[in-house]
Specification:
Blueprint (H helix, E strand, L loop, with lengths): L5 E6 H15 L3 E4 L1 H5 L3 H10 L4 E4 L2 H9 L5 E4 L8 H6 L3 E4 L2 H11 L4 E6 L14 H13 L3 E7 L11 H19 L6 E5 L1 H6 L7 E4 L28 E6 L2 E5 L4 E2 L5 E2 L4 E6 L16 E4 L2 E6 L7 E6 L8 E5 L9 H7 L4 H7 L5 E5 L9
Parallel strand pairs: 1-19, 2-3, 2-9, 3-4, 4-5, 5-6, 6-7, 7-8, 8-9
Antiparallel strand pairs: 1-10, 10-18, 11-14, 12-13, 14-17, 15-16, 15-18, 16-17
Helix pairs in contact: 1-3, 10-11
Bound molecules: pyridoxal-5'-phosphate.
Length: 384
C-alpha cells in the first residue's frame, strides 16, 4: 500500500466484525453510535460497515449528522439526541430520523415541525447523569403530553431511554440507582399509555458489563471501533474460532528526517529532553494540529522498523521527534503511532494512558493533515 506523508487507515472489516460480535454477545438489537464522524473513522463508511455487521439502528448526536447519513444513502433507523431551540426538526422528520426530546418545550417544537407527519420521537430521561434528558420531576408531565400528542396522531413515541454516568465502573452504586430510576420512568411511561418500540440504557461498557441493563437495544460506540470501553474490566470476546474486538483505526506517518546527535544535545521546544549518549533521532511529521496530543511529549512511543521508539521532547504543532538509538533508519520509513497492536505498534488505549485521557479522545481527535483512507476486502493492497 502506498503511504503518503501521514495516513489514517480505517479497516472496515474490523468494524463489521466488531458490530456482529457485539450483537451476538449482547443478544439484543444494536444501535451503532457514529457521532463525531464515526469516532474519527468516517460517519458514512462506519455507518455502512455497521449496517453490514447487523446494526439495526445508527445513533448520532446532531440533526446534521443524521441528515449526512441520509445524504450518504443510509435508509435504516437513525436516532439523534442533541439539539438547541430553533434547529431544523422538520428536516429530520422529513428524512425519517427519530428525534429525541428532553423537555415539553422541545416536544412542542417537534410537534410544530412535524406538520401532521407523525414524527417519530424518543424521550430521554435523566436518571442521574445530570447531563441531557428530562429531570425526574418532569417525567410524568412530559409522558402525559407525549401520550396526548400520540393519540392526536402528531407523533409516535418510539423510544424511552437514558444514559449511564459510571458504566465503566461496574461496581459503582450509581449504576444500580440509575437502572432503578429508569425502571420507574418506564413504569410512568406505560401508565401514561405509551408503548415505546425500544427502551434503551446501555452504552458499550454497560452492554459488556451489565447484562440486565440491555432492555430492547444497546447503543454501542467505542466497542464498535474495537476499543475497550472499560480497560481491564471488559469480558474477553475471543474464542478459539474467532478474534475478539479488533481496533479499526491505524495512524502512520513517514519519517521526514533521520539524524545523529551527540551526547548533551537537547530536543524540541523548551529542551525538555537531553541525550545522555550519542543517538539517532527520527522526525515524525505530525503534531498537535493533527490531533497528536501535546501531552505525549516524553511519554508516548511509536513503532519504527519493528521496534518501539520513545518520543523525545515536546510534541509540536506539525512534528515530533523519536529516539531510534543506534539502529539504522531512513527518511520515508513508517512510524506507526497506533493500530491493532498485533505487529507491536502501540494501541489507542496506550496513547490514552500516556496522555491521561481515554481512547475515545485519541481516535476522535486524530485528523488534521492526516489523509484518511478506508480499507476493505476489495481494496486491500491498493491505496487506502
Ligand atoms: C456517545 C454515546 C453513546 C456511545 O457510548 P460508548 O461508550 O462509546 O459506547 C451512547 N449513548 C449516548 C447517548 C451517547 O452520547
Amino acid at each position: 500500500m502506498t503511504r503518503g506523508r501521514a495516513d489514517i487507515v480505517v479497516e472496515l472489516p474490523a468494524i463489521r466484525h466488531n458490530v456482529a460480535l457485539l450483537r451476538q454477545h449482547a443478544g439484543v438489537p444494536v444501535m451503532t453510535v457514529v457521532k463525531a464522524d464515526g469516532y474519527g473513522h468516517g460517519l458514512a463508511p462506519a455507518g455502512q460497515a455497521a449496517r453490514e455487521g447487523g446494526a439495526t439502528w445508527l445513533g448520532v448526536a446532531t440533526i446534521d449528522e443524521a441528515l449526512a447519513l441520509r445524504a450518504a444513502g443510509d435508509t435504516g433507523r437513525v436516532l439523534c439526541w442533541l439539539t438547541v431551540p430553533g434547529e431544523d426538526h422538520a428536516a429530520a422528520i422529513e428524512a425519517d430520523v427519530d428525534v429525541t426530546v428532553y423537555s415539553r418545550a422541545e416536544l412542542a417544537e417537534v410537534v410544530a415541525a412535524a406538520a401532521g407527519r407523525a414524527a417519530r420521537v424518543q424521550v430521554k430521561v435523566d436518571t442521574g447523569l445530570s447531563r441531557g434528558g428530562a429531570p425526574r420531576g418532569e417525567w410524568e408531565e412530559l409522558f402525559r403530553r407525549c401520550a396526548d400528542e400520540e393519540r392526536a396522531g402528531r407523533i409516535r413515541v418510539t423510544g424511552v431511554w437514558s444514559h449511564f454516568a459510571c458504566s465503566d465502573e461496574p461496581d459503582h452504586p450509581a449504576n444500580d440507582a440509575q437502572q432503578a430510576a429508569f425502571d420507574d420512568a418506564l413504569a410512568l411511561a406505560a401508565a401514561a399509555g405509551l408503548s415505546p418500540e425500544v427502551r434503551h440504557l446501555s452504552n458499550s461498557a454497560a452492554a459488556l458489563l451489565r447484562p440486565a441493563a440491555r432492555y430492547d437495544l444497546v447503543r454501542l460506540g467505542l466497542a464498535s471501533y474495537g476499543l475497550d470501553p472499560a480497560p481491564g474490566r471488559s469480558p474477553d470476546l475471543r474464542t478459539a474460532h474467532r478474534p475478539g474486538l479488533l481496533p479499526a483505526m491505524g495512524a502512520v506517518a513517514r519519517l521526514a528526517m533521520v539524524k545523529r546527535v551527540a551526547a548533551g544535545e537537547s530536543v524540541s521546544y523548551g529542551h525538555t529532553w537531553t541525550a545522555d549518549r550519542p543517538t539517532t533521532l527520527g522526525l515524525v511529521p505530525v503534531g498537535y494540529a493533527d490531533g497528536v496530543p501535546r501531552h505525549a511529549g516524553n511519554r508516548a512511543e511509536v513503532l519504527v522498523r519493528g521496534k518501539r521508539r520513545p518520543v523525545r521532547g515536546r510534541v509540536c504543532m506539525d512534528q515530533f521527534v523519536v529516539d531510534l538509538g543506534d539502529d539504522h533508519a531512513e527518511p520515508g520509513d513508517e512510524a506507526w503511532l497506533f493500530g491493532t497492536g498485533l505487529l507491536g505498534e502501540p494501541t489507542a488505549q496506550e496513547w490514552a494512558e500516556w496522555c491521561d485521557t481515554i481512547s475515545y479522545e485519541i481516535v476522535s481527535r486524530i485528523g488534521g493533515r492526516f489523509r484518511r483512507g478506508w480499507v476493505d476486502e476489495s481494496t486491500r493492497g491498493s491505496n487506502a
